[in-house]
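Internal QA ticket QA-208
Title: Verify multi-chain structure generation after dependency bump
Assignee: T.L.

Test input:
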Amino acid sequence: MKRVIHFTLNGFEVEVETESHKMLLDVLRDKLELTGTKEGCGQGECGACTVLVDGVAVNACLFPAFEAEGRSITTVEGLIGEGAKLHPIQQAFVDAGAVQCGFCMPGMVMSAKALLDENPTPTEEEIRAGISGNLCRCTGYVQIVEAVKLASKYIQEEKRG
Amino acid sequence: MRDLSFVGRPIPRPDAADKVAGKAIYIHDLKRPGMLYGKIKYSEYAHARILHIDTSKAERLLGVRAVITAYNTPEVRFGFIRDNVALKKGKVRQFRDEVAAVAAIDPEIAQEAIDLIRVEYEELPGVFDPEEALKEGAPIIHEMDPRGRPKADNIVPVPWRFVAGDVEEAKRKARYIAEDELQTPPISHACLGTAGCIAEFDLQMNLIIHTKTQIPFLAQNDFNRALAQMGLKGKNTRVIVPTLGGAFGSGLDTHGYEYIAILLAYKTGRPVKIVLSREEEFKTLSPRQPTRTKITQGCDENGRLLFREVRMLLDNGAYTSWGATTPSVMMLPISSIYRVPNVFYETKLVYTNNTYCQAMRGYGNPQAAWAIETNLDHLAEEAGIDPMEFRLINKNIPNDISPMGLHITTCGMEECLKAVKQRLNWDEKRGKQRNKARGVGVACLFHVGGSGRVYRSDGTGVILKIDDFGYVTVVTGAIEMGQGLVGALIVATAEALGVTPDRVMVITGDTATCPWDVGTHASRGAFTACNAAIMAAEKARAKIFEIASEHFLNRVKYRLEQQKKKDPNFEMPDLGIKGQLQPEDFDMRENVLFLKSDPGNKYLRVTLDELVREAHFKEQGTMIVTEAFYDPCNQMIDTRTCRGNLSATYIFGAQGAEVEVDLETGHVKILKYVAAHDVGRVINRHTILGQIYGGAVQGMGYALCEEYKSEKGRMLNPNFLDYKILSANDLNFPMEVKLVETIDEAGPFGAKGVGEPGLVAVAPAIANAIYDATGVRITSLPINPEKLALAIRKKRNSK
Amino acid sequence: MKRFDYLMPTNIKEAIEAQLQYGERAKFISGGTDVLVRLKQRALDVDCLVSLRRIPELKGIEANGNTIRIGAMSTFRELIQSQLIKEQLPGLWKAARVLANPQIRNVATIGGNISNAAPSADSVPPLMVLNTNLLIHTPNGLREAALEDFFLGPGKTRLKEGEVLKEIVVNLPPVNCKTFFVKVGRVSQDIAVVNGAMAIELEGDQVKTVKCVLGAVAPTPLRLKGVEQRLLGQKIDPHLLREVQQLAEEEVRPISDVRASAEYRRHLSGVIVRRLIEMATGI
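Actual output:
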């Protein structure tokens, strides 16, 4: 069955026609051509498709498209500021050398955002638990954990300054 | 050497921002106008005759544009010994064999069409164990060899045999001997970004293919051969490589799905995209070569190694890829790690109905290191010598030639071992914590560090061009697959040329515009591409300084005159220049040219972009474009003697672990990990650390939990739920990296390759630590909790 | 994925009617992290999914005297964030924290975990060792069922067509009864190779009451009655612990699968049971 769904995406109201068997990931990538969110496994194991739904990290590959109705969704594209300025979390990943092939990065950054929104100064253990649903094959996670620590610092500085 | 401005520092890589912003375009994100989607139908049996393929229902499905099989397309033969074909005819030899394919207007319709294709098979008995496949009466996988000659056995004609000295004699002389049988399973690359391609023809019937590959030029060659088989001989292929979501060796072959996309594009006249799902990625891409190894090593009463004897049985699977050449790399550590005068190495490669295997990071070295380093600890125990001490006694040394003919130049093995020893508190801990089920272990590695000549050319080309704004483009055929090639290149180029890294842009991944490169493998990317970039930069500097000798002073005077016009009180300085300036009078650093004789003079400075414009915007102007092709001083291995200096330089490393074992559940907790690597020189600190951490963690997965499981040829765990790779939560322990800089003269600024070594020694280091903690030696990977717990229990019960 | 309809009723009546209309060809979906994966793997085939996400009466976690009521659509995230669960049902709280990964926990529900009836379900052992009942909506009103008898086999429960879980009702045990939970996987984040829970009341070092349930060692979560009987009224000492460990190994009926062998599961069962007791006695 087809339906038009209405939701908030990265701060803007959107209207999309989609089908009942589609997942949010399909809507984002195919309908809206927001290819930042990636499909890594399609089964909720790798986190490459992580987006925020009402501020909470979910795997878009297992989120039925119809359920987006009335929700507020944030994807990696929504973190970019005016003039294509990277979000502090994204900047921290660049500065900490945490990026290699980059495929896991959008999902990783979104999980980091969910984590830091809820817990602005996490311990290393909390960081590792917070990104435990995001697999990375390249980095070994060491510089990613450093990046999240740095991101926490950047965000605190931004709040103060 | 003068002070380095950028080499060794942590410089952000230029592609990082796009990747974290979600803007980088991977094959999954790429669309071409009019594009169709392809899907593949795979075999339902491990070994069977194809009796009949009925595609009629699929063809009639709305939205389907082509359905192909081996019976309505020209035969396209490919593979390292060309024993594979794109679409299978006559019989299938493994579950992942491609039997048919569909192109449709959307992927769902394509999948529906695949489900509508009916194939009738006559099942044949299969063979899934290489030992079984060698026996008489075993089912024959290939009844004919690629040349059409009949074949009566399952042996793959790619044998490896290496002999140095006299092992039998050495066995008689040895005071201590240790013998072991060890196994490794197939391992999936498990790249986060799966494989895929988009194939299309232009109106002259030349092929353009966007694809995930590490060998764009060898792929171009492969695809041109395919075109010839399709009746398009003389046509050319352009291979374009999008951003890669990892590769780790999976891009070192061309694959069936690529040829199928080409055939579908040819048939439909439209671009056809095939992207593998995660399940397909696990099931239909080739994993790391599994091994069964028998190893014996012996030493004298002082612990000096006398011989090493290694026999390997390799399950080749149903077809032969470049992975069949892993023994050539395994020969390196087998013949040359530590100083061993007498070596024997022989492998047998056997066809079975299992999946065929290909290259994966380390290219056989992890499998060889597993055997050598586990057995070495065993031998050290026999000899009553501490394993760290044993390795120091036998360590490789600089300026040595190994039995295989490898010219070892720089060698940091001693420093690496000592770093591990010190950082793990080895002497306080080894052999002293068994009551706490804790232990420490070490293992070393030996790998190519200056490329590895496995192909007729081992070169990498670079074009360097400077624009009117002082921005530099480096164009190279080497590939960025996440490892940080671009991060190293901007540093090396900036340093060699005299600009800042932010002015350097790297273009890669297009065979039509980028200079030739054999492929990004053997940890060679930064080594060869940076060497070529340095050569091109030096040529550019020569040209710049020649232009400067003509234009520098004019520009300086012009600026001074402008300043005088603006400010009449300005006093014209005495520049102190007598006569004509020569090219050798100049230097350039951080985008600015100056005189060597007066570097601090604030007037005698011209920026690069000013100079370029001076030379460009005039009659008979000129621009600065230079090129270089770097082909290292290494040799191909002589296939008869298996000798040759395969690489321009070699890398060494030692890794160590402290572990704590839960003796009941078998879980291994790493308490501390140390990776010490002789890297020659650090070019970009961010990317080199990333490679070592990343490689080490892949190695930990290899050691503790990763395993491609199959039963009678069928893969049992084609998903992340059951093919476990480590998550951040598994790695909550300190990982220390020690970078030993031996400054090798063959390398760019002294650097050696670093892509693979992080992974090579991890499994034996951890296994050796587990032995220290428990007294149990596990000889097959992975050392998962089940295996360890049951082995410990068995040991307890036998007491 | 193959096509299916997706309905989003806002009350129970609508939901049940929808499911009855499609019969076997419809399934309820809560978080979707089991159902959708099975659909993608082609282990399941439906014409319609009936979402329970927008039915408010299926949510809520509250205490009611000596009972705790957990709405079936409570996500594991909500369970983890609930002070009530953390304090009153620590076994369940611990299980919620180690189930799958954060993204899954944010949408997966306890009702879904129970209805999916995997022998390895993490939320079941800590609930089954307590006096737990399920409140079920049927086409003809509500009915109650004991959690202990709810499972019939892997993926099979006593839920009939047109029935949907409303609430999990836990009757809190006496204050001295402590609940413990252990999960063993292959790596830190995994489906349980074996998991287990124990609710135990000690008087000094003597066992007053005890219930023990292990998961992933039988077609359904298994109550180890033999182990319980051996422990009842006994003083805990090393000899008893060894005996009970042995008993547990004999009582379970595990299979070998791609995750683990029966032999290892059997071995782990003994270890887990012994460790649960040790946790209770503070060893």
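Spot checks passed. The two ends of chain B are 64 Å apart (CA to CA).
Status: verified.
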